[in-house]
Design a protein that fits this description.
The protein has helices spanning 8-11, 14-46, 51-65, 69-82, 89-114, 118-126, 131-161, 173-184, 187-217. The chain starts with 7 loop residues before the first helix and ends with a helix. It is built from 9 helices and no strands. With 220 residues, the protein is mainly alpha-helical.
């Protein structure tokens, strides 16, 4: 007799799936915003003439980009706990996602800043713009436009990578799927549903990023 599908056993826990999906989105949204802030600060530090800013930023980027996200997550949750710094699972997950995205965003933003020609900056200076005005009107918008596709893709990667956070019991979508299959033993159905939800989230986020990009940069 062939395998009998019982998706009803999964959807009986629909409230848990919804809560897990919402937490995944909340973590991803917060990590994207904060990670971009960290990445922008890191890019400015890496481009700085001051070695005390440039070198720590470079070390941060190299360490994070050359170590697994799971190890970073375990360090923040289990490692810090061993020395007396106890973080909740959700906060540790968010912090790990921000730290991880910040390192990649640093290099992406840095590439965007370098894409702005020196001639444009000199033109801004020649018409009397302050350095802040030049950064705001001449540098940052063209730089963001150049790197927006890469940042969008990185944000989606972070959302998908949030599934790892189930390993520290952060109750996001993968945690919900794991919990449900531990109760009904319908592994195929549980993870198929989780996969479908991640796929839908990814498609919707790509469409949302594309829409935002068209609106923000339509006059550029």
């Amino acid at each position: 007799m062939g395998y009998q599908f019982h998706f009803g056993d999964v959807f009986a826990y629909k409230d848990l799936l919804i809560r897990g999906t919402l937490l995944t989105l909340e973590l991803s949204a917060a990590a994207t915003v904060l990670g971009l802030v960290v990445g922008t600060a890191g890019a400015l530090a890496r481009n700085s003439a001051h070695i005390l800013l440039r070198w720590p930023a470079a070390v941060y980027v190299e360490v994070i980009r050359n170590t697994p996200f799971l190890v970073q997550l375990f360090f923040l949750f289990f490692g810090l706990s061993a020395v007396g710094v106890r973080l909740s699972a959700e906060f540790a997950a968010l912090l790990a996602m921000v730290v991880n995205l910040g390192a990649y965003a640093t290099e992406i933003v840095r590439a965007g800043l370098k894409s702005v020609g020196r001639g444009q900056i000199e033109a801004g200076l020649s018409i009397g713009l302050t350095r802040w005005q030049i950064f705001r009107h001449v540098v940052i918008l063209p730089a963001l436009q150049a790197i927006y596709p890469a940042l969008s893709s990185q944000a989606i990667i972070v959302m998908l990578g949030s599934s790892v956070c189930s390993q520290i019991s952060a109750q996001e979508l993968t945690y919900a799927a794991n919990f449900i299959q531990s109760r009904n033993f319908r592994s195929f159905e549980c993870y198929l549903v989780a996969t479908a939800i991640y796929f839908v989230l990814t498609v919707l986020l790509r469409q949302a990023f594309a829409l935002v990009g068209r609106r923000v940069f339509r006059r550029s």
